[in-house]
Amino acid sequence: MTLKDKLIQFSYNFTWFSKIWYTFTMLFSKNLEKCSIPIYNNVEEIKNALGQGSLYKYDIVAGVKSDYLIHPSVIQCRLQSETKFGDCDDHAIYWCSAIKKSKIAKKVWFSFFTMKGTGEDKSYSSHAVCVFIDKEDKIYWCDYRSPRNIKKYADFQKESAKLYGNEPVCSVMWEIDEIKSDDTPVFGKITRILPEQG
């Protein structure tokens, strides 16, 4: 483990700040547009609504790559107009909100992690996903495509990083406590996870 790995793991003790920032950016964007997330019957309907990642768009503010979270109701408006709407964290928060609102799962978490390359390229990157436990007590994670089954919650970081040829450094899960009447997700308990826990 490198010094940078250790610093990243230490920084994940403070994702409560990110939770405040993401909540603020969602509420800020909500004032721009408002559409209601429909009640979905299953996860396949959500996957199809999101276009399986085909509607991906970088978060850009004033021409600069930024990191903010779009309110799920704004994402819904863009889905209805068939326009690109956001990056991995925007996909993840829509998954979480739609699943929670539709009561498809018992528990839902907005989750993200940092990963690094395993080959010559040792660069670092981050990714956000939705993790949930369904009514049959099976655990899944998803980003753009159909949800994938995992044995335990912490496995999401390893399974997702593997798809990119990377390995996880550290991850965190924010439980979604509720979805308000205006489709605003309410973040709850924070769980930090190290790779060896997965």
Structure description:
This protein has 198 residues and is of the alpha+beta class. The protein has one domain (3-197). The protein is built from 6 helices and 8 strands. The chain has helices at residues 3-11, 15-30, 43-49, 72-80, 88-101, 155-163, and strands at residues 60-61, 64-65, 105-117, 124-134, 139-142, 148-150, 166-179, 185-193. The strands form 2 sheets. It has a 6-stranded antiparallel beta sheet with strand order 6-5-4-3-7-8. A two-stranded antiparallel sheet has the order 1-2. Strand 7 and strand 8 (185-193) form a beta hairpin. The chain starts with a helix and ends in a 5-residue tail after the last strand. Residues 61-65 have low confidence and may be disordered.
**What's the mean pLDDT score?**
89
Tell me the β content: 25-35%
CA radius of gyration: 16 Å
Given the helix and strand composition, which structural class is it?
alpha+beta
The quaternary state of the protein chains shown equals single chain
Task: Write down the overall geometry.
Answer: globular
Largest sheet, strands/sense/barrel: 6 strands, antiparallel
